[in-house]
Write a structure and sequence with these properties.
The complex is a heterodimer of chains A (532) and B (313). Chain A is of the alpha+beta class. Chain A is built from 15 helices and 21 strands. Classes of the chains: A alpha+beta (532), B mainly alpha (313). Chains A and B meet through α1, α7 and α13 of A and α2, α3, α5, α7 and α8 of B.
């Protein structure tokens, strides 16, 4: 007969066997020569030209190197390049490679590798496409020399070659770089400071990088993606966790060293932990965007677009995105990133001052808006986009608009935003996104600001005048000319209201105090980081 | 018996074909676009179109389905759109954590739940019975992720006895393997224990009211032989049915549990693939889960003959 004592004993034994038998205290910290890092998204592929997600760019920065690299003043500095010369007519650029550059398979980096890599990059990158349109010759006269001859001057060449915006001009072995730019590469071989361990790769969960012993860093100190990229680790493990709570717990327990992007909900808990350091990750942040479809009513009329801008209160958007922490956001009455050399808020008055709903309603009525449903695409699986979508929903209703609120996931938004048909036939009127502040520092690779109609980004805005102002910036020679051109571009874009900036928001990164050398930058930089 | 097993295995072929067709249709016809996800937010519509063409996603539905079927009959699940790795390789990478979690959960749950149900039935109406029922209601009501977070907070963060998350393959040692799975197993097992304990109690109550149990008691048999040799064996058929059905519950629960405890298993692979629209991976994993479910049902049917000799196939 089973007594109560026996039953209780059975339960206790089972409990003990499963939990209490664990060691009293666990040693959880990873070794000092291994860094465990949680990226903002899982790494599902590693072709930085084919896939332009930021997480791919960030991982690629460890594996591949670039000819030039942007520093924290947003100036291009030689990286793989030793030096360059420009002809007097500014049409021919000759770039000489540093000696001793090697790929991870042991082969030297040669001029023809650079040529093939740039050819592939130029197809996908907006600045690359401009260079491609001007290119008369791109050749490698010898193993350490690359020559680019253009049909017209392109003063932003070095900025393009060292840009941080994806896709970056990474240099790959020629045989890999010959892959079609719209097809994924098979081999991951670069000449960067770390080699990718494809054999240990668990896509979406874990990616491992191992120190490349033959990498020769530059002598200069590291500054963003310029200078000497000295890595203090034998291994860097990227461990993706789908759940922010789990990531926060792992950081606190020491199973993780560095978390790239802390979810706002977990900031208070991490801040209370003395073992954890917390700071802004990217000082340039991201500019939120309310993107219009310019092809269909009502937003094919500038008055309707400006009516929306008149009532957008960036504080509402930003607090919805980041919560009550005012350190994490700021108003930005501009399409350009604050505190960057070319920043201008010319024409941005429409986004400042008291919001006038009555005037906005009148302007909307003048535009001919007659109550047709406004299709608002909202990616509910991406927290900032969901937050911005909900604010816009409320704002449109306050203006008396009928809203077709399409709550869906990012994958669906990404597909539907490409549909040019009217909203009632599967198209759309508004969707939200954001643009990395580093991409919005200059007009160079700023695709979202373009107004070249059918060739423009989703929404297909069309204004030849704005395009001319953009070209004027490309032609500007002195910094003063550049600033003036950007101010005019911002003023015209605000008047046209290509899209509405909803504010600039940032995120925290967090790390164990045993880790030092983490800097603020648009992407996680592993050079200069060490662990006690 | 062998003929029956062969028939059942053969019958899985049309089932799998229907599953394949339904899954493929749902994926292709549903909104969303892997090319747009690959291209990134800043890509132009033209770039997205060219990637779609390079992936072959612009071809007619039937052409794509025919190609998918042809690969399937050649035991090829295709290549992931995103990782460029064979789907079979990706499944192989992720199958060990999920299978380990599910097997441990089944062992743990059955070990706990069956005695709980038996004791509750034996002591029907007592405080033990009520305690078991309260536990069962809680197990059903509290979501797996809440239990998971609570366990992680108490046993990993506060007491520091167990790791918060992750997975260590069994090849690296049994204890490292087990310590990563203890908390997920308890979290995932909670709902399963509740299910099995309730059905065990209900079935046992029915069996314990039968005449032959009274006869056994009248013959002077002890409680233990009556409960476990006579009653439980006759209650085993519905219990094993529920254990089998519960596998589906475990598959769903594994997705959540793997997320909470950051276990790189098939559940996470499925969710990631769905979010990215990685069609070949989704198809491969769903087909695998369907096959496992069909197979488990077959095994349960065969187990009936062990528990009840009157059942013959």
């Amino acid at each position: 007969m089973i007594g109560r004592r026996a039953a209780a004993g059975l339960a206790a034994a089972t409990f003990a066997a499963t939990t209490l038998a664990a060691p009293a205290v666990r040693a959880q910290a990873s070794p000092a020569r291994t860094l465990r890092f949680a990226p903002h998204a899982p790494l599902a592929n590693l072709d930085p030209i084919w896939g332009t997600q930021y997480v791919v760019r960030n991982a690629a920065m460890l594996v591949w190197d670039t000819l030039y690299g942007i520093d924290s003043r947003l100036e291009p500095k030689p990286q793989m390049a030793e030096a360059h010369e420009v002809s007097d007519d500014r049409l021919t650029w000759t770039i000489r490679l540093r000696s001793g550059l090697r790929f991870h398979d042991g082969d030297p980096v040669r001029g023809k590798d650079v040529v093939a890599s740039l050819e592939r990059w130029m197809v996908r990158d907006p600045m690359g496409q401009s260079i491609r349109a001007l290119r008369e010759e791109l050749a490698a006269p010898d193993d350490r020399t690359i020559r680019l001859r253009l049909s017209a001057p392109y003063p932003r060449l070095l900025q393009a070659l060292g840009a941080l915006g994806a896709p970056c001009a990474f240099i790959m072995p020629e045989r890999i770089a010959r892959t079609d730019p719209f097809t994924q590469i098979d081999e991951v071989i670069g000449s960067g400071p770390m080699r990718f361990r494809k054999d240990e790769w668990d896509p979406g969960a874990r990616a491992t990088f191992e120190r490349f012993e033959r990498y020769e860093p530059r002598d200069e100190p590291a500054d963003w993606i310029a200078g000497g990229k000295r890595i203090a680790f034998d291994r860097i493990e990227w461990i993706a966790r789908p759940d922010p709570a789990a990531t926060a717990a792992a950081l606190q327990s020491g199973e993780l060293d560095w978390w790239e992007q802390v979810a706002p909900d977990h900031v208070p808990v991490l801040r209370r932990n003395r073992q954890i350091g917390l700071d802004i990750a990217d000082p340039l942040g991201n500019i939120g965007s309310l993107r219009f479809n310019h092809l269909h009513p009502p937003f094919n009329d500038v008055r309707a677009r400006r009516a929306i801008a008149m009532v957008v209160d960036q504080a509402d958007y930003m607090r919805a995105v980041v919560g009550d922490d005012d350190v994490l956001w700021r108003r930005v009455p501009s399409f350009f990133t604050p505190e960057t050399p070319l920043y201008s808020d010319a024409g941005g008055e429409i986004l400042s001052g008291p919001r006038d709903h009555d005037a906005a309603r009148r302007l909307l009525a003048e535009s001919g808006y007659d109550g047709q449903p406004i299709t608002l695409l909202v990616a509910e699986d991406v927290a900032p986009l969901k937050a911005m979508g909900q604010v816009t929903h409320r704002l449109l209703r306050e203006l008396g608009c009928v809203v077709d609120y399409v709550a869906t996931d990012w994958g669906t938004v990404a597909r539907r935003r490409a549909v040019r048909a009217p909203p009632a036939k599967g198209g759309w009127n508004i969707f939200h996104t954001w643009h990395a502040g580093v991409d919005c520092a200059t007009p160079a690779g700023y695709t979202a600001l373009r107004t070249n109609g059918d060739g423009a980004w989703f929404g297909w805005p069309n204004d030849a005048g704005i395009e001319r102002l953009r070209e004027a910036w490309f032609a500007a020679v002195t910094p003063a000319e550049e600033r003036a051109a950007v101010a005019e571009l911002n003023r015209a874009s605000m008047a046209f209201m290509t899209w509405v900036p909803t504010g600039l928001f940032m995120a925290y990164q967090a790390w164990r105090r045993s880790v030092s050398g983490i800097v603020k930058a648009p992407l996680p930089l592993f050079w200069g980081v060490a662990k006690a | 018996m062998l003929a029956y097993i062969a028939r059942r295995i053969l019958s899985t072929i049309p089932v799998m074909l229907v599953v394949a067709f339904v899954v493929f249709s749902m994926l292709i016809l549903s909104p969303g676009d892997p090319a747009a996800v690959i291209a990134g937010d800043q890509a132009t519509p033209e770039d997205v179109e060219r990637i779609r063409a390079a992936l072959g996603l612009d071809r007619p539905f039937l052409v794509q389905f025919a190609e998918f079927l042809w690969r399937l009959v050649n035991f090829d699940l295709g290549t992931s759109i995103f990782t460029n790795l064979p789907v079979t390789h990706m499944i192989a990478q992720r199958i060990e954590p999920t299978v380990s979690l599910m097997v441990l959960t089944i062992i743990f749950s059955v070990t706990i739940a069956v005695p709980m149900g038996v004791i509750a039935a034996w002591k029907a109406g007592s405080w033990i019975d009520r305690a078991v029922m309260v536990f069962a209601v809680l197990g059903f009501s509290v979501p797996v992720f809440v239990i998971g977070y609570l366990l992680a907070y108490i046993f990993a963060l506060e007491l520091d006895w167990l790791p918060v998350q992750g997975y260590t393959p069994i090849a690296r040692g049994f204890w490292p393997f087990l310590e990563n799975l203890i908390l997920p197993t308890i979290a995932l097992g909670s709902v399963y224990i509740a299910l099995i304990a309730r059905i065990t109690r209900a079935t046992m109550l029915e069996v314990l009211a039968q005449d032959y149990i009274r006869t056994a008691k009248a013959k002077g048999l002890g409680t233990r032989p009556i409960l476990f040799l006579h009653a439980l064996k006759n209650a085993a058929v519905p219990i094993s049915t529920v254990v089998g059905i519960g596998i589906a519950l475990l598959i769903g629960g594994a997705v959540v549990t793997e997320s909470v405890f950051a276990i790189p298993g098939l559940g996470r692979l499925t969710v990631d693939a769905i979010l990215r629209r990685d069609y070949p991976v989704i198809q491969g994993v769903v087909l695998l889960f369907s096959f496992v479910y069909v197979l488990v049902n077959l095994m349960i049917d065969l187990l009936y003959t062990v528990f009840d000799p009157r059942i013959r196939y």
